[in-house]
Every structure is written in structure tokens, then in C-alpha cells.
Amino acid sequence: MLQIDNLTLHYGHSQILHDVSLSARTGAVTCLMGTNGVGKTSLLKAISGTHPRSGGDIVLDGHPVARTVPAHALARMGVGYVPQGRDVFPLMTVRENLETGYACLDRSERHVPDEIFELFPVLAEMKTRRGGDLSGGQQQQLAIARALVTKPKLLLLDEPTEGIQPNIIKQIGEVISYLRDRGDMAILLVEQFFDFAYELGDHFVTLTRGTVTHNAPRAETSRAALLEHVSV
Ligand SMILES: Nc1ncnc2c1ncn2[C@@H]1O[C@H](COP(=O)(O)OP(=O)(O)OP(=O)(O)O)[C@@H](O)[C@H]1O
């Protein structure tokens, strides 16, 4: 579903990503791991169109993506992005937050599927509450649900367990497994909670100072080797 070749990215004059190549296939969880500041979020920004790459190629579902394609167009092409920190709209209700995903859909498709409330029952209970009144874990669930409303073919998740209580981390893990097993989307998961990522991942990519240092399927990724790559 996603193929990236030799991607580079800069902020001003400082180069953050160096010739990054990886792929994420449909029906699999690809984990992108590494310590703070190695460029994981920057890579997701480049894929989602929220920061332009400087060079390299991105191919989505067989279609080359030009460097200048804006985020809203990528969202329409099937890229669902759950950013670090969630970016829930605090003054909008849960339902209104979900409805912001409609912008990516044709008019006839604009509804919130029941499945989303089955995956996240708390959102059904809190439909009329404001986003800002939800706990951090509930906001994370809302951010994932909002991305699902857009019917993504590629789901980008940036540290969904960050600052979240263990019972909600477990639920989020179950949702990610379910979505993977449904088999209609590729999932690229940035995660620093090692055990969570190691349990879920089908393929592992590590970054060190903006360079890929490991890129292999689960069968060729020992826990010890992966830990070594993501340790400071
Ligand atoms: N808008 C920006 N302008 C300039 N530098 C930035 C900007 N955003 C990030 N950086 C720098 O780019 C580098 C990579 O940041 P990035 O957020 O992609 O890393 P990360 O691996 O996601 O880290 P973390 O786990 O802390 O989120 C860091 O050195 C960061 O300070």
C-alpha cells in the first residue's frame, strides 16, 4: 500500500531524514521505532502531507505522490493520520469531531459507521460531550475514530499509548489488531512503548538520527536486536 524510497526531509537548513526507505503493506502493522528526536513524527508528517519532503519518492496504492500534494488531498487518497497529541477539537462535541472526517468523503458516504461506536463504546456514551472534557485516553480513542471515519487505506498512528492509562492502552491494542485482521488497510505505527509495539508488529523499522537502521519482518526481528536498535 505504501512504498517510500530514499526520502529526505529538512526543517530550514537542518536535515532530519536521510534516504529513508520502507514499505507498509495492507493487512499488516508496520512499527516505526526509535528514541526521541530521530525523526519518526517528521516521517509521518511527510507521508500525510503536513510537512513537505525534500526528496525521494512516495507511492500510495501504486500511485506516485508528488511532493506538493497537500494534506487534505492525501486524506482523500486514503491516508488517515492520528497525530501525536491527538489534536481533538476541544470545543466541538464528540460527534462534531467525528464529522470533521466527512470532508474526505463523498456526500453519499457521510455518516459515522456503527462499527466505530462498537470499537469505542465510550464515544457512543459521550457523543454530545465536548472533546476537551474527555480524558486523555478517551481523546486518543476519539482521534483514532475520527481517522477511521475517513475510511483510510493507510492509517498513521503517532504514539497512541503516550500518557494513556493501561486499560485504554489494552483497548487500543485490540482495535489495532482488529483493523489489521480486517485486512483492508495498512497500519504504520510509531511507538516508543516497546512491549506494545513488539506484540502488535508484523514488520519493524527503526530510525537512528534520521537513518533506517533496521527494516525486517517479525520472523527476522529478535526482541533483543530490536531493543538494541531503539535504546539510547
Ligand atoms: N517544526 C520543526 N522545526 C525545526 N525542527 C524540528 C521541527 N519539528 C521537529 N524538529 C526537529 O526534528 C528532529 C526530529 O523530530 P521528530 O519530532 O520527527 O522526532 P521523533 O522521532 O518523532 O521524536 P519524539 O519521539 O520526541 O516525538 C528533532 O531534532 C526535532 O527537534
TrEMBL record:
<dbReference type="InterPro" id="IPR003593">
    <property type="entry name" value="AAA+_ATPase"/>
</dbReference>
<dbReference type="GO" id="GO:0015658">
    <property type="term" value="F:branched-chain amino acid transmembrane transporter activity"/>
</dbReference>
<keyword id="KW-0067">ATP-binding</keyword>
<dbReference type="InterPro" id="IPR027417">
    <property type="entry name" value="P-loop_NTPase"/>
</dbReference>
<keyword id="KW-0029">Amino-acid transport</keyword>
<dbReference type="Pfam" id="PF00005">
    <property type="entry name" value="ABC_tran"/>
</dbReference>
<dbReference type="GO" id="GO:0016887">
    <property type="term" value="F:ATP hydrolysis activity"/>
</dbReference>
<dbReference type="GO" id="GO:0005524">
    <property type="term" value="F:ATP binding"/>
</dbReference>
<dbReference type="InterPro" id="IPR003439">
    <property type="entry name" value="ABC_transporter-like_ATP-bd"/>
</dbReference>
<keyword id="KW-0813">Transport</keyword>
<feature type="domain" description="ABC transporter">
    <location>
        <begin position="2"/>
        <end position="232"/>
    </location>
</feature>
<keyword id="KW-0547">Nucleotide-binding</keyword>
<comment type="similarity">
    <text>Belongs to the ABC transporter superfamily.</text>
</comment>
<dbReference type="GO" id="GO:0015807">
    <property type="term" value="P:L-amino acid transport"/>
</dbReference>
<protein>
    <submittedName>
        <fullName>Amino acid/amide ABC transporter ATP-binding protein 2, HAAT family</fullName>
    </submittedName>
</protein>
<dbReference type="InterPro" id="IPR052156">
    <property type="entry name" value="BCAA_Transport_ATP-bd_LivF"/>
</dbReference>
<dbReference type="InterPro" id="IPR017780">
    <property type="entry name" value="ABC_transptr_urea_ATP-bd_UrtE"/>
</dbReference>
